[in-house]
Amino acid sequence: MAGAAFRKPGVEIVPLSRETLQDRVYRHVTELILDGSIVPGEMVTVQSLADAFGVSPMPVREALRRLTAANALMVVSGRSIGIPALSRARLVDLRNVRFEIEAIAAAWAAERIDDHGIAQLGQHLAALEQANAAGDVKSYLRANYAFHFSIYRAAGSENILNIIENLWLQISPYFNMLHDSGNYSTANEHHQKMFAALRNRDTEAVRQAVRADIDAAFDVLVALLK
User: What are the HTH gntR-type domain coordinates in residue numbering (predicted)?
Assistant: First the structure.
């Protein structure tokens, strides 16, 4: 009844979006991390992000505060942020959790993915192959993120998707370091197996392919840390 006081003839009352400017900036910065656009060792300033997004520094600082609390970023100086250093212990922990959680999500996706989802995965897979052939690291990482998260979204669980995103915020910037090892070609072999398993609705095969992909990247990164 209270809302009726605000109704006027010819005026349509539209519910306000709950998404704030801070939320939008947070989402933009999150996407930059997940698709490898922020590289380990690179410093990004609050002002440069504010300028890029066309906003004041305040929502950028809030977004960076949230991402720092999630161990996705670290404060390098008062006005700059960067990707946290990756220790062997942290890398092992991330691998172990990803090994279980992402395999579960992929198995659920195999049970639930529809033909449209399979077609989308095929497009992402083609983009991965093209980027790898061209040696285009940025395009490869964007396609890699799109491929994997299309699978994890198909699992149909917002909770497991949030867990995986938090894990990727901590590890995905380091996928920039995998190119010279030839890992992108190895990863694409695993991606092909994931795609085939999902198309065949084979839960066990997709679990194995996801775990093999995670382990292949882990082996390269742990050797680089040495």
Answer: 19-86
The top-level CATH class assigned to 21-83 is: mainly alpha
Query: Mean pLDDT, consecutive 10-residue segments, the chain of 226 residues?
Result: 43 49 91 91 90 91 92 85 93 97 98 97 98 96 97 98 96 94 96 98 98 97 90
What one-character DSSP code corresponds to residue 100? H
* Exposure class string for 123-135: b at 16+ Cβ within 10 A, else e: ebbebbbebbeee
Q: How far apart are CA 190 and CA 44, in angstroms?
A: 33
pLDDT in tens, 58-78: 999 999 999 999 999 998 877
Calpha distance 172→146 (Å, rounded) = 12
Cα 168 off chain centre by:
5
pTM of the entire predicted model: 0.87
Sorted by where each begins, the domain ranges of the chain are 21-83, 88-224
CATH topology agreement for domains 21-83 and 88-224: no
Structure confidence by residue, pLDDT tens digits, 120-143:
999 999 999 999 999 999 999 999
Superfamily of domain 88-224: GntR ligand-binding domain-like (1.20.120.530)
Q: List Cβ<8 Å contacts ≥24 apart for 161-167.
A: 161/105, 163/101, 164/98, 164/101, 164/102, 164/105, 165/30, 165/34, 166/70, 166/72, 167/94, 167/97, 167/98, 167/101, 167/102
Joined tokens for residue 212: 């093999």
Sign of the Cα torsion 19, 20, 26, 31 reads: positive
